[in-house]
Specification:
This protein is mainly alpha-helical and about 210 residues long. The chain has one domain. Helix content is about 70%, strand content about 0%. Helix 1 packs across helix 5. The protein is globular and about 50 Å long. The chain starts with a helix and ends with a helix.
C-alpha cells in the first residue's frame, strides 16, 4: 500500500471523526437549549452514518486532499427549530457555533499533542496529528464563512438588521445548491482564504505552546 493511499485513508477517518463530533455538538447544544428536533430525528448521536453528506463529507474533501489543496467540507445539517431554542437569535448562534468551535478545539488539542510530545513525522501517529490539525482548521474556517447555510451565517443573523436577515433566509432555502455554487465559482478564493487563516491559527497555537 502506497503512502498516498495511506494518507487518503487517514484523511477519510479524520473527516468522519471530526464531522461526527461537529454535528453531534450542534445537536447536543440545540437539545440543551430546549429544542428536541435533533433528538427526535436520531441526530443526537456519534454514529457518523447519521451525519454524512456524500458531497460535503466525502467527495469534496477527498478531492481536495488528492489535488493537494486545503481541505474543507461539511455534513448534513442538523435539524432544529429556532423557535424552540432559548435566548432567541443568540441561542441559535450558539447552536451554530458549537460545531465549528468543536473543530477548532480538536485542532488545538491535536497541535498540542503533536508539539508537546515531539512526535516524529516518520511515525504514523506523527503523521496523523498534522492531518487532524489541517482538516479541522479547514472545516472550522470554511463553516465560519458568514454565508447561508454555513454556520457563520447564524452569528450574522444575530447581529444583522431585519432586511439582511430576510435576504439570508431566501439564500438559505437553496441550501446545498448555494454551497455547491460557492465551491465551483469561489473555490480558489476560499482555498487562499483558508491557507491565510490556517497560517494565522498555526502561529497562534505555536505561540500558546511556546514555539
Amino acid at each position: 500500500m502506497s503512502i498516498s493511499v495511506i494518507y487518503i485513508i487517514i484523511v477519510l477517518v479524520v473527516i468522519l471523526f471530526s464531522m461526527t463530533l461537529h454535528e453531534a455538538m450542534h445537536a447536543f447544544v440545540s437539545d440543551w437549549l430546549g429544542d428536541n428536533t435533533a433528538r427526535s430525528q436520531g441526530r443526537l448521536t456519534l454514529n457518523p452514518v447519521k451525519h454524512i453528506d456524500l458531497f460535503l463529507t466525502i467527495l469534496l474533501p477527498l478531492t481536495l486532499a488528492l489535488v493537494g489543496a486545503p481541505i474543507f467540507g461539511g455534513a448534513r445539517p442538523v435539524p432544529f427549530n429556532p423557535d424552540n431554542v432559548r435566548f432567541s437569535e443568540w441561542g441559535v448562534a450558539l447552536v451554530a457555533l458549537a460545531g465549528p468551535l468543536t473543530n477548532l478545539l480538536i485542532a488545538f488539542v491535536a497541535f498540542g499533542l503533536w508539539t508537546m510530545f515531539g512526535l516524529s513525522g516518520q511515525k504514523l501517529f506523527g503523521q496523523i496529528m498534522p492531518i487532524i490539525v489541517s482538516v479541522n482548521l479547514g472545516f472550522f474556517i470554511f463553516n465560519m464563512i458568514p454565508i447561508p447555510p454555513l454556520d457563520g451565517s447564524r452569528v450574522l443573523y444575530a447581529l444583522a438588521p431585519e432586511f439582511v436577515r430576510r435576504g439570508m433566509e431566501l439564500i438559505e432555502q437553496f441550501g446545498i445548491i448555494v454551497i455547491f455554487l460557492i465551491v465551483i465559482f469561489a473555490g480558489p478564493f476560499i482555498g487562499s482564504f483558508i491557507v491565510t487563516m490556517d497560517s494565522f491559527f498555526l502561529n497562534l497555537f505555536g505561540y500558546i505552546f511556546g514555539l
